[in-house]
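Much of what follows relies on a compact textual record of a protein's fold. With that in mind, consider the following protein and its fold in token form.
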Amino acid sequence: MRNFTLIAFLFFSISNFAQIKGTITDDKGNPLPFVSVFEENTYASTTSNEQGKYQLNVKEIGKNKITFQYLGFKTQKIAVDSGSKTITLDVKLQEESFALNEVVIDPKNNPANAIIRSAIANKKENSDKTGRYTADFYSKGMFKVKDLPKKILGQKVDLGEDMASNLDSTGTGILYLSETISKVSLEKPNKFKENIIASKVSGNNRGYSYNTAALSNYDFYDNTLDFDVKMISPIADNAFSYYKYKLESTFYDDNNQQINKIKVTPKRDKEPVFEGYIYIVDDSFAIYAIDLDIKGYRMKNEFTEIMNLKQSFSYNSKNKIWSKNAQTLSFNAGIFGVKFSGNFNYVYSNYEFPASFDKKTFGNELVAFDLNANKKDDAFWNEIRPIPLTIEESSDYAKKDSLQTIRKSKKYTDSIDAKNNKFKVWDVLMGYDYKNTFRKYSFEYKGLLNISSLSFNTVQGFNLDTGFSFKKWNEEEGKSTTISTTFNYGFSDERFRAIGEFSHRFNNINYATIWGSGGTKTAQFNGAEPISKFINSISSLFFKDNYMKLYNLEFVQINYGQDIANGINLTGRIGYEQRKPLFNTTDYSFFKKDDIYSSNNPLAPDDFTTPAFDQHHLFKALVTSRINFGNKYISRPDGRFNFKDDKYPTVYLSFEKAFAASEKKYEYERIGASVLYDLSLGNKGVLGTNFRAGKFFNAENISFIDYRHFNGNQTHIGTSERYLNVFNMMPYYSNSTNDSYFEMHSEYNDTGFIMNKIPLLNLLKSTMNIGFHALAIPDRKPYSEFTVGLDNLGFGKFKLFRVDYVHSYQGGIQQNGVVFGLKILNALD
């Protein structure tokens, strides 16, 4: 009922709008894009498009004064007096005549510095004036690709027929175009609610736009703005530590208020800083406009070349408030010779500044989409859209929308599938994919020569996987089903092993999912698998170090999980396991052929005859809960999308029980808890922490498999983005326990705060990591590690490496070493 009332009110408002439209050019007839257009002393506003065309909806046309505001040009205020419902008003803007009023720039008494100091001193007052509001919001976003090559690194680029049809013969075209209409409520510092009334995606009448107000709220009155890293505002409290300022000119707006155009220049190139211009109103020292560039390497995003953010503010003389009426975010990016560009336009209008909000206004729901938000017709959009479409955008909508019906037809999808589903003789070896797009299912055969699965360990020797999988999905209902089998063969132990898996997701609202698996496989003693197959293969074949210790597991298990409340997910599992010890069957390696591998017994690496445990079986049950405090979410008709609130930690609680074992001694209970938290230090970096604790009960004689094993690392190779779940130099099974335990991992990343200030080293564009790791268990000396290193290392745009110096200490034994982080290895397992 609430949505119906809102839509009815919106249509009533549209029907009572009058419209002023036209083209804005300079005095030579060149169109001016993104000119702010608004009605004086109201909050009806819009901007012109790339071709200078605009359309402004006002309540009525009588004696309106329409303001045209554009940086570098004189602001024009034009009175409109007509009873017509729609009028055309073309405007020519004259370039601004800037002046400095003969001010002499004295390095010791820089007038720009005085203005910025006043802006900093007054920013709380100016920010508070717009600290609580509702507004209408419109956005239009577009991604384009330019000069897409036929091949990248020798490999043919295949975008698929649907995507390829968007590009012309030069590999240029629009990849994504969308629009959003919404109603926004905001109360600083962090209360926000957005209701999406209309959403349109070119070529997808079931799609939902992602360019929302929630993801585009950039406030320069804040000390930092979030662009992957915390960027320093030119009027931050500590801005003078990062910027130099120059008063380039002054001019007067249509309200006869003096505007100061100040050039913003970084003091150090590699800092998270902007550069460009900020326009400050004299006397009130409010922001008049923003025109700032962000270089990609300054926000640790090497693929982005440059991003530009423009904002314009309009003044209401009745309440003396400067409010943002328009924002434009554009960027250029590239990789492998492919150039991308994006442009997002935002219009804020019809502000209201209530004294307070109802207590129910704000909650954990950040964004809500009306049920039929993506089903508005062209008449609706043509009436309400504040920024006219360009010829290119209109053409893209017309082309993709007309092709949509064809592309979703059974005849079309079957023809595309038939082309891609052709079976070739070598597919028996290399693998084969089959897809039925119309009926929404697919089949995959991995091939007999699934080289990506090839690995080596001393139990199986070289081993290879193959298998089959089937998937069926329904995006509208959020359902998906997957069934798969994996067959593994070890060439040294000459044994086939096979497992089967299935999963079914019921919806995208509470993410109710059931999944299960069963079969036979080799498993690591530590179920978290701290050493990957790839790293173990390299370590064994090249250095004769077989750190991976395996046992044979025959099992069947079933799991069920879902969100049971906002931010709370509960998962349960029950399964049967039969465990058998395994022994080395090969001594093969590429090098060090005279050396001997350690045994497959993690408790006795020099004992090649005694197994680590006796064969046995048991049942195990596990219940785990994940709690995200303050969890926020976006509600869409096709699902709910959660966003962790960074102000709060994530907590995991678990209870595990082993029962009905072949012998009573293998049965036990265990409780566990962990707390993960990232403490944001603004532009000074982030401190990540991970605390874990647990306790076993009735576990004096349980199998070593069921001990609590900790993620060690003896390879000196790191594979994760962050080291908040690993001890960098601890042997894999040296501290395993069947008693209580407490482990702590902490890591401070300066995000460039320190490294950006060190001469020469700042050329690396890297970040510094300082870490501390500790483990405490009964009857053993505590283990601790201190680390310091550099992250974000690499070549050109590829920052895939990390190097850390590690010092460890336990019971008087100290070790020192270096861990080389190769984050690209995440994709190889």
Notes: Confidence is low (pLDDT under 50) at residues 1-16. The helical segments are 2-15, 111-129, 161-164, 378-384, 391-407, 410-420, 427-430, 533-543. The chain has eight helices and 44 strands.
